[in-house]
Amino acid sequence: MQRRFRFSNTVHIFVITLLVGLAGCASTGPTDNPLRRSLTWFSYLGGDDLRTTCQPGSPERYRFVYNARAEEQIRTYDIIVGPSGTGRLESHVLTNADLDRLSVVDPLRPWRGEESEVTVGAAEINALRSALAASGFDQPAPRGTFLRSDDFYWIVSACRDGAFRFNAYRRDMPSFEAIRFDAPLFAMDPLTRQVAVNPPRELNLAPFLSAQQKSRLAPGVHGSPPWQVQVGENGLKTGLFD
User: Fold this and answer.
1) Cβ neighbours of residue 58 closer than 8 Å, sequence gap 6 or more
2) What PROSITE patterns does the database record attribute to this sequence (predicted)?
């Protein structure tokens, strides 16, 4: 029989416990190291490393994060476009940790998730650009919106023509229904065939503070309480929430 621990046991509970300290840890990009991922997760979500390196002459880069209820599934996609118009896609899928995959050689293997790197053709990159435009990516980000880990949402950040751009789409917002970039993104990712996408669904979420308290007090539940981030003007808000 397989023994499964929630992904939150190694990432989310660590993030919640050390939230203040971790907020200052800067992401340097995608990683399969669960400890490093924990330390830099909020920075990665906000695209901080893309923002820092984005300047005239910088390569075109995209980051997509699909939070499909974090304890169930998170999918990340990082794309860098070369001078020829082709790109390199690095994708990761994080799900419940399977302890049957523990090994002496790689004791963190159950929490690394699945990873893939592939070359993406220029036609696929162009299709993704068009899908992003059709999804309203260039519209202002929904400033002040809270994104909960126990909900469904997309976060997208990009460096294009030397300018950083950020947007977010939450399940209950009209912009989420207007998303068009998911289909071409899933199509170019080999992990889609390996780990099925967790589709969005209707949820009856308790108010955030109530959900946190209930999670802490629920008997026999060893995962962490839900966490949340808040959208700022062109990225995630840092410091105290509004």
Assistant:
1) 159, 162
2) PROKAR_LIPOPROTEIN (PS51257)
pLDDT tier, 24 (very low <50, low <70, confident <90, very high otherwise): very low
Q: What is the pTM of this model?
A: 0.79
> Domain map of the chain by residue range?
4-230
pLDDT digits (tens, 9 = 90+) for 68-84: 999 899 999 999 999 99
Beta bridge partners of 159: 61, 164
Strands (E), 27-145: 60-68, 73-81, 87-94, 97-98, 114-120
- Listing DSSP states for 139-202 in one string gives SPP-TT-EEETTSEEEEEEEEETTEEEEEEEETTSHHHHT--SHHHHHHH-THHHHS-------
Rounded Cα distance between 176 and 4, Å, is 31
For residue 151, the Cα-to-chain-centroid distance in whole angstroms is 12
